[in-house]
Amino acid sequence: QVQLVESGGGLVQAGGSLRLSCAVSRSIDSFTAMGWYRQAPGKQRGMVARIDNGGSTNYADSVKGRFTISRDNAKNTVYLQMNSLKPEDTAVYYCNAVRVRPGGTESYWGQGTQVTVSS
Predict the structure, then answer these.
(1) Under a CB-based contact definition with an 8 Å cutoff, are residues 35 and 90 in contact?
(2) What pLDDT shows up at residue 1?
(3) What is the average pLDDT score of the chain?
(4) Contacts of 44 (CB under 8 A, 6+ apart)
(5) Which of 15, 36, 88, 111 is the most buried (most CB within 10 A)?
(6) Are 45 and 39 a contacting pair, CB within 8 Å?
(7) How does DSSP assign the chain, residue by residue?
(8) Which residue has the higher pLDDT, 103 or 47?
């Protein structure tokens, strides 16, 4: 079973920074893509940033220029550097791993880490 463990969340003032980490129990090279998603109270979970196994990235429009996703294959860890945080970034952030195979797609989630940005 694949396990993803997020860390690095917390309370920060607007304009501050946080770095989230996602430690994966399997080699992240084995996944088609890794991503960060977030869910605020009363809202649906949405994609924040994604990086595929070729290193290509894409971001939600709301975080472009402020957030950076990266991966360290040697440590089986994915990061989300969040700068210039805004109160609207407050949410539970989840790490996701996706593996696309001919027989179907596997998707794994972490337990989430809370990020709270105060104004």
Answers:
(1) no
(2) 87
(3) 97
(4) none
(5) 36
(6) yes
(7) ---EEEE--EEEETT--EEEEEEESS-GGGSSEEEEEEE-TTS--EEEEEEETT--EEE-GGGTTTEEEEEEGGGTEEEEEE-S--GGG-EEEEEEEEEEETTEEEEEE---EEEEEE-
(8) 47
* Residues comprising the chain, all counted: 119
The encoded tokens of residue 63 equal 């975080």
Both tokens assigned to 3? 């396990």
Which residues have CB under 8 Å from 77's CB, separation 6+? Answer: 21, 22, 23, 24, 28, 71
